[in-house]
C-alpha cells in the first residue's frame, strides 16, 4: 500500500522562481489525488479542500477542486474499484510517463535513469515503494516539495504524455480527468483538443509510436528480470 511523501530533500534547494512556486500546493494536492485512495489518502480530503480554497481562483484550482469534492463524496469502495479499473487494469491511462514515450523498450531504461538523476541532483531522497521514478504522483511531489523549477521543467518535458493521459481519462469519463486537466492548466499554452494534436506537441513521432507495439515485436525487449518485475510492478494487489 502506498504511503506519502515519497521522499525528502537531503539539502536545501535554491529558491524557486515565483511562477513555479505558485503551483506547489496544487502539485502536492494532485500527487495525493492520483495515489490509490486508501484510508490515509481519503482522510486528507478535507485538508485538500481547505488548501485549495486558499488558492487564487483559476481553471486548475477549479478542476482539482471538483475531483477533491468527488473524493470526499464517493463511497470508498467505489473509489478503490474505480482506481484499479482505470490505472491498474489498463495501460491506456497509465501514470508512468516514460511508457508514453518509449513503451516497454530498452530505451525506456535510460529515460528512467535520467529522471532518477534529476532527483538526486536536487537532493530528493526517493523511497519508491515499488514505483518507478516516472510515476506521475512522484514527479508532482518532486515539483511541490523539492525543486519547483526543475519539477515544472520535467512536467513541461513530458507535457505530451500528460495530455495523452488526460484525453484517455476523458474518453473513459473518469473523474481523474479533472486532476490531469488541473496539472496541464499550470503549464504554458492551451491543452490540445485531441490525441493527434497531443502527439504533434512532441515532434518525435518515431519515439511515441513505440507505444502500443504488438507483444511479439522484437523491439519490446524486457527491462527487468522476472524477480525485478515482481518487485516493481504496479500495485495490482491493493486492498
From TrEMBL:
The keyword Ribosomal protein does not apply. It comes from the Bacteria. Gene3D superfamilies: TorD-like (1.10.3480.10). The keyword GTP-binding does not apply. GO terms for biological process: chaperone-mediated protein complex assembly; nitrate assimilation. Keywords: Nitrate assimilation. GO terms for molecular function: metallochaperone activity; unfolded protein binding. This is Nitrate reductase molybdenum cofactor assembly chaperone. It comes from Gordonia crocea. The lineage of its organism: Bacteria, Bacillati, Actinomycetota, Actinomycetes, Mycobacteriales.
